[in-house]
TrEMBL record:
It holds the Pfam family Abhydrolase_1. GO terms for molecular function: peptidase activity. One of its GO terms (biological process) is proteolysis. The keyword Cytoplasm does not apply. It comes from Luteococcus japonicus LSP_Lj1. Residues 490-590 form the Peptidase S33 tripeptidyl aminopeptidase-like C-terminal domain. Belongs to the peptidase S33 family. Its EC number is 3.4.-.-. Residues 377-394 have a biased composition (Low complexity). The keyword Metal-binding does not apply. Residues 375-394, 406-451 are annotated as: Disordered. It is an enzyme of class 3 (hydrolase). This is Probable exported protease. Residues 106-261 form the AB hydrolase-1 domain.
Amino acid sequence: MSSRHRLVPAVLALGTAASMITSAAQALPVQPSQPQPARSAKATAAINAVKNPKVVWRRCAPGLQCGNLVVPLDYADMDKGTITLPVSRRPADQPKRRIGSLFTNPGGPGGASNQTVTFFANSLGRDVRARFDIVGVAPRGMDGEALAECTGDVADAGSASMPLTYPLNPAEVEQVFAQNTMIQKACKEKGAEILSHMSTADVARDMDLARRALGDKKITYHGVSYGSYLGATYAAMYPKNVRALVVDGVLDPVEWATGRGKQGGAVPVTERIGSGHGVAGAFEALLAECERVGTAACPEAGSVRSDWHTIQRILAAGPVDLGQGYALREDDVIGMMTGVLYSHEESALVPSVLHDMAVELTALSTVNRVNAASSPAARKVQATKKATAQQKARGVAREMERLAERAAKSVPAGTVDDDRAVHRGPVLDPTGETTPEPAPDPTEIPSEPAQPPVYGVGFHAVLCGDSVNPSSRAAWVAANDRVREQDGGFGQLWLWSSSLCAGWPVKASGVYRGSFGKPTSAPVLVMTTDHDPATPMSGAVAYRKTLKTSRLVTVKGAWAHSTLDISACSDKIRNSYLLTGKAPAKDVVCKPDHALFTQLG
């Protein structure tokens, strides 16, 4: 790999994480396809025997209280001790009319629920804030005393950088394979004890213990993205404890856990859940919508598709030198475009930024054709033109980054960096100037010894523990061809985020993998947009069919990862359900408050 820096977008959470692909070497054993019944029964009996814990609250921010919840490390083996989970809550504005606690989860896996309470309080609105304490319990391993970390060898410190969103060629596949082998070795030899106890089922057990600690007879819950899988798992494990449970931006829980039929042993989880197909479909629908409304509402309607093809063609030839030590790759643009589609508002700007990118990359390609036989004066003029073209292209790339960053704020987990603590390279700063890394002085003696890399593996500890996956790393290489053909780079971006699961050396205890169709004591509210780039509408539809005691609310004509704050219609239905516990009598279709593109003039 060149040492050249790259513009690297934030990487998605379900999130997903950047790909660090596993090696073609021998695969380590993976977890069985079904939980161990005896252990699950023992864990259930054990949690019932646990006394209700107490949470001592303290003021930690304006309007916010913080505390700690002590839970068993292993619900099936109390002798292993306890861990402490941070908890936050925003007390109800009208305590005399308080209904109870509203538990929330922002997604991930890895979103620290205790840190997103204010987001949910603001998004869910005044009526909900008035009647509920908004509560967030940190998922185990993500915050607090027991973190999901693995410590590598000092010798690996210099090779712990892998700035790839997904691999573009066989050499990069092998490069990321080596990275995954290194991380797996670190987790096998020096992985935190918590890694074996981070399944979604254990998080659901923690949440039920928190429900008891806060005095709620039944749970009221709102989970987004991966938080929908936590909600589905809780509903399946504690079907009689549901008062009102909302899942928004919904994963198909069957596909996440095992797949259907014999999928689990052959198809990687991040291909099964269909996120790559979802974002590719959302992107295509956006281009088609721009063309449909015409230039009065979308000025780039006549060129948006050719602009995208131009960008693809130029980047397919290889990374584009943007000057000042930066380069732009196909996977950078795919990652940023995926991130932008998380927000309905930011998605409307996609045609404009694609047009600008196509123009500047075309101009840069033209000036790059330097005639070696030209005179020195001509080459100097050409160099000046190239520097100008590079500067303009960097500006467009920065704008694309900004769109993705703004879109991240529309959902609580948003887009996050890879959950492993690896250096992904610098990005351009907000002023438009670069901050190059100083060249090392070979004569300088280091003042401190090299430190071993520490990998934060929370995303994969949950994903790989929850889901059944192929044992062969070659399965991801084979899947790469399938998703590339079907969904282009969008499919590859999502596919490779699970590659670490082939050979994942940690066996999760207390896993729950179904059934997800057990009737619940109150209907579950399933919510989705029809152009969700991370958890496609197909996941919500599948869960609605799986769980008969559910209702589906679809916001049609919306490009967003969750229905929060985009439709007064869906907001009203959700909040009425949370306040009364009564779901709609039948499935409902809403519209967003604003069309994607607005008529100009």
